[in-house]
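Worked problem 6 (solution included).
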Amino acid sequence: MIAGDTLIFSSNLLWHAGTIPSGRLMRPSVSVVILGVGDFQRARRFYKDGLGWPIAFEKDCIAFFRLSGVVLALYPREALAKDATVSAEGSGFSGVTLAHNVASEREADEVMATVERLGARIVKPAQKVFWGGYSGYFADPDGHLWEVVYNPHWKLDEQGSILIS
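Solution. The predicted structure is:
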């Protein structure tokens, strides 16, 4: 390893930063999901105090939560839009949902009840779905859609990461 090189651990493979395995245009990983939020302190309270997720790093108006294999970041919506050089205006369905997999239907119901008590809006109550699983949707305080899902076809490890075989 050359001094100053950064190592990236992704998809159980160790790569030098800036190098991509032959034949790939982009590493097959998602490392950070950033939610643009209308009220940073409210969102921070929902995820940190309500859900109990520990903050890995926080400075000014950005907070990072280390999840199973990915980092969730909260950042003001206006600032995020400015950084991406797009308009912060817009409403309705963005075409993106986040999913939280659980180990049972009962756990899905418990998570849905908890987030509702914390101020989330239940969009679709947890229920049996056409593909054999069980899921529901809630909107966090900024309207980001989360699916809480039990998939009987997948196993979860101790950290809640999906094991697909």
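Discussion: Residues 105-117 form the longest helix (13 residues).
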